[in-house]
Amino acid sequence: MTQEEDIAAEAAEETHGPTHSGFVALIGPTNAGKSTLVNRLVGAKVSIVSHKVQTTRAIVRGIAIHDNAQIVFMDTPGIFKPRRRLDRAMVTSAWGGAKDADLIMLLIDSERGLRGDAEAILEGLKEVQQPKILVLNKIDRVNREDLLALAASANEKIAFERTFMISAENGSGCDDVMDYLAATLPEGPWYYPEDQISDLPMRQLAAEITREKLFLRLHQELPYSSHVETEKWEERNDGSVRIEQVIYVERDSQKKIALGKGGETIKAISTASRKELSEILEQQVHLFLFVKVRENWGDDPERFREMGLDFPK
């Protein structure tokens, strides 16, 4: 047993009664609210959120403790019809996460219903053996009759164990989901130390935070294929940390957009990212952002490995 497992076991032994643990895969169409829900259930920022579709690229694990259970949420990329190599890698990652989980949580945007990608996901779920629950999100935007009709339609296609109606934005219904998961996941020791909320390395989380700020600032102007890497992380003697990151774009025109007139845009992105990183790390952050052009980086296997994705042939 590793030292990490020892710590997790000791933490679990301090709780009352038998412990439960397991992996829950959140799958669904793009922009259904998966990342918002993971952050809500974990109680901390572990997955980035933006208005841009396909923001989540690789599986992000958020770890929550509820009653005597440790619930490991797997925030998967949104499932959609892939057009490019990066798209295929993301969709493959999502389905792979579903098949590796103890339980699958299908998240549906109640406003959009079962149109488009949601219908295709329901068909794909028929081939997956794990137990499944249905979660209808954004219920505050839809009337009750439409919600009940949507739930009935989805349950006609898949034998869901339970159906939940929630708002990831305001937390309505989320406690019911947590109660169910804590009671349903198999009995066993916890996988992670009690105070760990994600398995994402801090360098990668920092890059994801900056990518979120990039998309929030430029979601209309910049393609989602833009990529951020943390190239240097230096803990300084005064207790602060110096972080250097590179934003990769595919064309010179995109570089100009990311920099902005007189560097105004990149400064705003840096300020927003630095502020959030300082809060997460609880230390002063010196953040330096650089923008570089790397043509066709979406065909580079090394970039896929950096993102935690398998490079599709």
Uncertain runs with pLDDT below 50, 5 residues or more? 50-57, 79-83
Q: Radius of gyration, Cα only, in angstroms?
A: 20 Å
**Structural class of the helices, strands and pairings?**
alpha/beta
Oligomeric state of the chains?
Answer: single chain
Number of strands: 9
Mean pLDDT: 81
Q: Helix count?
A: 10
Instruction: Please provide the ordered H/E string of secondary-structure elements.
Output: HEHEEHEHEHEHHEEHHEH
Summarize the structure.
The protein has helices at residues 3-13, 34-42, 85-100, 117-125, 144-157, 174-184, 202-218, 252-259, 264-281, 301-307; strands at 20-27, 60-66, 69-75, 103-109, 132-137, 162-165, 227-235, 241-249, 285-293. The protein has 313 residues and is α/β, with parallel strands linked by helices.
Characterise the protein shown here.
Helices cover 38% and strands 21% of the residues. It is α/β, with parallel strands linked by helices and 313 residues long. The strands form two sheets. Strands 2-3-1-4-5-6 form a six-stranded mixed β-sheet, sandwiched between helices. α5 links the parallel β5 (132-137) and β6 (162-165). The longest helix has 18 residues, at 264-281. The model is unreliable at 50-57 and 79-83 (pLDDT under 50).
Keywords:
six-stranded mixed β-sheet, 313 residues, 10 helices, alpha/beta
Any chance you could write out the topology, listing elements then pairs?
Layout: H1 3-13, E1 20-27, H2 34-42, E2 60-66, E3 69-75, H3 85-100, E4 103-109, H4 117-125, E5 132-137, H5 144-157, E6 162-165, H6 174-184, H7 202-218, E7 227-235, E8 241-249, H8 252-259, H9 264-281, E9 285-293, H10 301-307
Parallel strand pairs: 1-3, 1-4, 4-5, 5-6, 8-9
Antiparallel strand pairs: 2-3, 7-8
